[in-house]
Structures are given as structure tokens and as C-alpha cells.
């Protein structure tokens, strides 16, 4: 997945597990930038009575770098606090919740928002209210209106933190069954009939932190970005989750209590970076490091394991890729430095020579009138890897890049295999409809409304 359960240790700590990061110029207002970080993967909508929620003991952050050092020049911090109104009841709600302030919600959650600029912190707001999860039509009637109440205006920012439908899509069941892609099953070394992809994330929810920020509030000089080729127009974006260094069980409170400084336990910039690029033995280490330490992992980008597996798993399909023994400068540019000026005519999102896994968004590029889910490789410069929109099919884009489709950008002597422009996992997002305005992600599936899937053992 993009980053759902991508490393051994964080898979044991879903409340701190970042799943996806998005950064794009708002199609509703091109003077604004949308920053989204999702956490808590694979939420079954009917997961009561202890429904999913942000962790009171987790520091959630969205970071922005606007220099060439891949350091957090601007960070937005989110701290949550949960209140139990009636601890003598096992119920999440004691009646319908029609307003996020209703006393019938037995476990309301509020949060604070702090902006940190070059180390100087200023709290922008406290007591902001999250919505409840979508329990069902009796408990949370008119959920759309209920969730809208949790969109808060804070100065020149808008913010939302709560449950949404997971818009990421991927065929996990096939990909992790020896690297199979169902549309190309017949070509696999263990051949099976071709078929459509199965979205493993279908019907699951996530918890979203979304920010709408004026673009000029993210540049290093406070100027609105207007020149695509001006280095100041591009920012790097990533999200982290941190816990206190020590944890002690407090018998009186009946819970673990953190002690000591904050320690980063989860990180996410580009989709699938830790999932697919970083090897198993180093995934947890990667999660603990800042992006500007990623030169330690550059060798896995320059010679990705998946690029060697594709010719072995699909014999005869990728002969040119199998013969290519050069360092993958194309992937290095896409994932670690941004694309320099001159590689794609009229485009750049280069952030300097420091190798760092960040989403890189050129804020001077306006939203597309005809967005293409394949983003930049399909000629849509407003899409991934220029930031990441919710509609971007990042699995297909990255599969095709690893398969060699983007090598000619830096090595014109290379001819991609025919399959490189066709490879995909065959899935699409069929969760709740996306919104046209903030916070853009669709409404979460309801516990009562969601039908369990089926399982097969053979």
C-alpha cells in the first residue's frame, strides 16, 4: 500500500501509522494549497464499540521545506484530547448525534493546531472539534452535515481532522502473492487467467488531517508563487507521527503514559517509498529518520529490487529492463531531488542536491482543466510526481516508472519495453465520491451501511 502497515514495528502501532500524504494546488481556489496526511489504516466502518480515533499520546505533524536543505522550515502540529462524558457506559453514543457538540456523543475528541516556523512555535487554535466516526443512520444521521461542522477556519487557514473514506487503491492480495498483477496473470512465471484488479482498500476508512493554506504562507519569502521555473515556487512536503521516548503503564489511569522527549516513529513523503523501495531490514530505521538523511537509502532507489524482479516474474516481457545495468537517475530525480529544469519542457520541481524523500509541489503550476490520473507521465503537470492529488493513480505511475518508462528522460539511448507503458494493477477508487472543495476526501463508510466482504481459502 502507499504506506499502510509498511514496516514491521509501525504495523503494531496503527494509531501512529501514516498511510498517505497529498499536496496539491486547490482546484477550488488556486491561491491555496491543500496538505493532507492520513493515519490509522484499514478501518472497518463497523469497528465498534471502540471506534477508531486519533491518539492522545501521538504528535501528528505535516512538514514543509522551502529551502534546498530538506529541513522542516514550516511544521503544523496536531495534538488531540479525548473526553469520556459517561465512563459508566460502554456506548460510543447514547443517542443520535446531530451536532458535534451533542452530549449524546460519549467520547468527543478535540485538538490544537500549532504552526512552527524555523523553530518558533505559535499555537493557532485549541479546542477544535473532530467529528465522530460514521456509526450509522440512527447514531450519526446526515453525516455530511455533521462532518461539515468540523471544518474550521483558523485565520487564513482551514483545517479538518476526522474520519474519511480511504481514496488509495491497490490490489494487495495479488501484488504480495509473488508480485502478480491480475491483468497480466497469464504472463506471470506462475501463470493464471487474466482478470481485473481487486481493490484491497475498498470499503475501509482512514483518519485525515487536512489543511488549506495560502500558497504565499508556504514560500520562504512570503511571495505568491507565479514563475514555474523559480526555485522558490517549489516546496517539499512530508508527514510524521511521534511518541514519547518512554511509556509506563499507569494503574490508576488504566493506560500507558508517555515520558521523555518526542521520538519519530512514522514518516511518509512519496507514496510506496518505504513500502517498495526500502528493504525489510531497514524499514523501521527509515521511519525514525528525517528526509535529509535519505542519502543512506539512495542505493535502493538507484537499483530498486522491483526492477530486477519484474523480468524474473514476467519472463520475456521486460528484456530491455533486464539488460539495463545503469544507476536509475530517473527514479533518483522523481523521488529524491525533484526533476531539474530542462528534463520536462517548461517544468521543474527540483529542490536541490540533498537527497530526500518528500512530495515536491511546484505551486506555480495551476490545477488542470482536464486532470489525468497518470499525472506528469501523461502530460498533466499538476499531478504526481508534482505533489500528489487524490485522483492520481500512484501505483500505476510508479509501476511504469520502475518498469523503465521514465528512463529516456535522463538516458535517451534507452528504449522502454512495450509493457512498461501498459503495466498496472487494474484497480480504481470506488469508495465514496470525492468532494469538489475542502477537505476533498469522500465521506467515510458507515458501520450500519457497510456490507462485509467474502473470503475464500482456495
TrEMBL record:
Region of interest (Disordered), ranges: 439-458
Extent of Low complexity compositional bias: 449-458
InterPro entries with a match to the protein in the record: DUF4331
The protein, known as: DUF4331 domain-containing protein
Organism of origin: Nocardioides panacisoli
Organism lineage: Bacteria, Bacillati, Actinomycetota, Actinomycetes, Propionibacteriales
Amino acid at each position: 500500500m502507499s504506506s499502510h502497515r509498511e514496516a514491521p514495528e509501525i504495523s503494531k502501532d496503527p494509531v501512529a501509522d501514516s498511510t498517505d500524504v497529498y499536496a496539491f494546488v486547490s482546484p477550488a481556489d488556486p491561491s491555496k494549497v491543500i496538505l493532507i496526511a492520513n493515519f490509522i489504516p484499514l478501518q472497518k466502518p463497523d469497528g465498534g464499540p471502540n471506534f477508531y480515533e486519533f491518539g492522545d499520546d501521538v504528535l501528528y505533524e505535516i512538514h514543509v521545506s522551502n529551502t534546498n536543505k530538506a529541513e522542516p522550515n514550516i511544521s503544523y502540529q496536531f495534538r488531540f484530547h479525548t473526553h469520556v462524558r459517561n465512563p459508566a457506559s460502554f456506548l460510543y453514543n447514547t443517542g443520535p448525534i446531530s451536532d458535534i457538540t451533542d452530549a449524546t456523543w460519549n467520547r468527543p475528541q478535540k485538538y490544537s493546531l500549532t504552526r512552527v516556523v524555523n523553530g518558533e512555535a505559535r499555537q493557532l487554535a485549541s479546542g477544535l472539534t473532530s467529528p465522530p466516526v460514521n456509526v450509522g443512520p440512527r447514531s450519526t444521521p446526515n453525516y455530511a452535515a455533521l462532518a461539515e461542522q468540523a471544518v474550521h477556519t483558523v485565520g487564513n487557514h482551514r483545517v479538518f481532522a476526522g474520519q474519511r473514506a480511504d481514496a488509495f487503491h491497490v490490489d494487495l492480495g495479488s501484488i504480495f502473492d509473488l508480485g502478480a498483477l491480475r491483468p497480466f496473470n497469464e504472463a506471470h512465471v506462475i501463470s493464471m487467467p487474466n482478470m481485473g484488479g481487486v481493490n484491497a482498500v475498498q470499503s475501509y476508512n482512514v483518519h485525515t488531517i487536512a489543511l488549506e493554506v495560502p500558497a504565499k504562507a508556504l514560500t520562504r519569502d512570503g511571495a505568491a508563487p507565479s514563475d514555474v521555473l523559480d526555485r522558490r515556487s517549489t516546496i517539499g512536503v512530508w508527514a510524521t507521527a511521534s511518541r514519547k521516548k518512554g511509556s509506563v503503564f499507569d494503574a490508576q489511569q488504566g493506560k500507558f503514559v508517555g515520558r521523555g522527549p518526542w521520538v519519530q516513529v512514522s514518516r511518509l513523503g512519496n507514496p510506496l517509498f518505504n513500502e517498495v523501495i526500502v528493504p525489510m531490514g531497514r524499514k523501521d530505521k527509515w521511519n525514525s529518520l528525517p528526509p535529509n538523511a535519505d542519502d543512506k537509502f539512495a542505493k535502493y532507489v538507484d537499483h530498486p529490487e522491483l526492477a530486477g524482479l519484474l523480468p524474473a516474474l514476467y519472463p520475456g516481457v521486460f528484456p530491455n529492463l533486464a539488460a539495463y545495468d545503469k544507476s536509475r537517475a530517473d527514479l533518483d530525480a522523481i523521488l529524491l531531488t525533484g526533476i531539474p529544469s530542462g528534463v520536462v519542457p517548461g517544468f521543474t520541481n527540483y529542490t536541490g542536491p540533498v537527497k530526500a524523500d518528500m512530495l515536491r509541489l511546484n505551486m506555480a503550476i495551476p490545477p488542470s482543466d482536464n486532470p489525468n490520473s497518470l499525472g506528469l507521465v501523461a502530460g498533466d503537470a499538476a499531478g504526481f510526481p508534482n505533489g500528489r492529488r487524490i485522483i492520481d493513480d500512484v501505483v500505476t505511475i510508479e509501476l511504469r516508472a520502475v518498469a523503465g518508462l521514465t528512463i529516456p528522460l535522463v538516458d535517451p539511448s534507452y528504449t522502454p519495453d512495450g509493457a512498461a507503458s501498459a503495466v498496472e494493477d487494474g484497480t480504481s477508487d470506488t469508495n465514496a465520491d470525492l468532494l469538489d472543495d475542502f477537505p476533498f476526501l469522500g465521506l467515510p463508510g458507515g458501520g450500519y451501511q457497510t456490507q462485509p466482504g467474502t473470503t475464500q481459502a482456495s
